[in-house]
Structures are given as C-alpha cells and as structure tokens.
Design a protein that fits this description.
By secondary structure, the protein is α/β, with parallel strands linked by helices. The protein has eleven helices and five strands; from the N terminus they run E-H-E-H-H-H-E-E-E-H-H-H-H-H-H-H.
Amino acid sequence: MEALLLVLVLSAGDPGSVGAATAVAEALRLQDPRARVLLAPDAATELTRRGLRDADLVARSERVLVETAKDLHLVIVRIERRQSGADQLIEVDLWSGGRRDGMSAVSGNPDKGGVADPLGQAIDGARRLLREASHDPVAAAEQADRTFLRRFADRGDWAGLIQAVDSRQDASPRLRCAAIMARLRLGDRDGAAAALTALRTVAPDHPLVREAAAALDSDAGGADVMRDGATGDDGGNILR
C-alpha cells in the first residue's frame, strides 16, 4: 500500500541528538507502518529538495509552515538533545498541516519522581504529536493564509501585501479580502472598490465578500478604523 505520510526526522547533528532522532524515527515507524519515515542523510536531502534547510527549522521559519500546508502528506520532525544545567533536555518539534507543535522532555532526580533519561518521554511526546497532527486541507489552507498575511501585517507593509496578493493567481478569498482592507488603510478607495468587484467575480457567495463590502461602504475617505489603526478590535479584522 502506498505510504500515506512522508515523515522527515532530522536532528541537531551531535551524537546525542542523532541517537534520540533514530529512536524517535523507529517509534514513529511502529506507530504508522504505512508511513515513509526518513532519517539523515535521506531526510536532509528531501528537505533540501523542497527548498528548506535545517536553519529554517531552528528559526521556526514561516517557510516550513507554508511547505507543510501545501503538502498534507509531509511531516517534519526535528530532535535536539542537550544539557541544561544538571539535567538532560530533549526538544521535539513537529511541523504538519501548516502548523508547528512541540514538547520538551527533561530528566530529573529519580528519587523525586523524575527520570534519569528523558528519551522515553521524548518518544511518547513525538508519537502523541504525530497522532494529533492536522492533515485537514481546509484548516491547512487557512493556516497558510494567516501565516502569509502575518508577514506583512506585523510590520504594517500594506503596499507589499497588496503587491504579493495581486501577483498570486491562486489567491484565496481571505487573501483578496485582506488586500482590499490594505487598500483602505492606504486611502485607495477606488482600488479597493475594483478589488471588491474582482472578489465578487471569483467568490460571489463567500462570507468575506460581505465583510469587505461593509468596510468599503463605511469608508468616506476620513478616519476609517481599518486604515488609521484604531485600537478597537472585535476579532473580525482579516489582517490580524
């Protein structure tokens, strides 16, 4: 039977991390025998083929979220084992479906209920993260959109957001609506109206069409809450 998941298990590269990654990979193979679980060097080769590097995993780059949102059969796991004071620490990060989850396993004094080696905890944690990983295409697409928008909204780059959305033929209604809001922030009401017309053409029944239309109707070229950044937020702002 064709493997349902491709699981790339990578590590920090030191002997302790490599050993922990090997144990985690074996546990994940046992948990899902249909999955194709790769360790280094094959996992690193596949990561590079997808345009990613270990540095992207360490930095928890948005690029990793986008890649796993695009391919719902892809799971990326990174293991790092290190010393933290007198304790051993194993960190497990897992990317799947456009999101990242993680856990830390820490050794402790066995006389006080701790464990001498946190590897068992790390294995159990990795297996739990894989079980709970999201492979829902709708949720993954929404997460990818939010990640894409956050790149611009966090630095207030509304012009950059508009340009990026306009350059994407596959832009979702959420992204198109965000570009309309961005135009209103910049005072480009005519551009926002034209973008709303285009949005109505590709997604006439989408709920965000009504939100964009209401925003456009409320804007009279003066102090608009979306353009001028008022502090109030009812949770409905597509740019947040």
